[in-house]
Amino acid sequence: MTNPIDPSQALTIYLEHREPDLAPSSLRSYDYRLRHFVTWCEEQDIDTLNDVSPRDIHEYKQWRRTDGHQGEGEMSRPTVKSNMDCLRGFLRYMEKLEYAPDELHDAAESPELRDDENVSDSIVRREKAEAILAHLDKFRYATREHTLFTIAWNTAARTGALRGLDLEDYNPDEQYLEFHHRPETETPLKNKENGERLVALRPETCVVLDDYIAENRTEKQDEYGRYPLLTTKVNGRMAAGTIRGWVYQMTCPRFYLDACPHEEEGCRTHENQNYVYECPESTAPHSVRRGSITAMLEDDVPYRIVSERAQVSEAVLRKHYDKQSERSKMEQRRKFFK
Fold it and tell me: What is 7-107's CATH superfamily?
């Protein structure tokens, strides 16, 4: 027999259960996906989870895929899968606590994805990254934007790792950066302590870093008394949203070419830079990471070395990050058979 519980209260219990195992960003993603289910239950006058039936789960899936997708058209299959996988885990845990009917989670079916659906193609290629860096070097040398993109491209670090860097994490004499997991002061790493590492830097990267620190870095502490490497005048440590905004702006062709080839297709970045999020070529920071990793692989850096530098398993590296063309891979193999 199940016990009655409000869906919103159930969500709170589930998030508390998952919190020790998830990075804060992942926990927010769970909250975001499951909050839609709570909203749907409210709209359907479902007061307790033990009133939810398999048919309800089916109807929720249809609602989330269409009407519940924030008016953005039909949800993609990968997004439907991530939402239903999350709901299934939530319902399974509620069943264990006897808050939901047995086997209800089986109704939260997710679509099977083809290989090409399960891998993102969003990437900043080497040529584009070099064009962005050339523009920054000429017109915005050693600014925060220049330093951010330089570090991101040369280390393939995630957004959370970039914002978590402190001034003392940079060793200018031995030319490397240290990445540390510091959850107690709100700068965790995705892989926690396993993500801690030293990353060697090229001399030209260090020149930009040295000049940024000497000339343009704002000397300001964050709310925990730490001295961030990449700073803002207001908060000290920049927010993840600030990093995303800068990367979206810098990857828009209008930024580094002073024109956008998609203007005739409706791109409005010439009107206001706030429209960079709508530009087909503007991308999130993860696309820079993906491009950086691909560039390393194109340069014949072994998978093991790239895996350790970028903190990603070799299996995930091959499936999600290796964006080399088949011809490029063939030419790499050719070198070993001459």
Answer: Tyrosine recombinase, N-terminal domain (1.10.150.130)
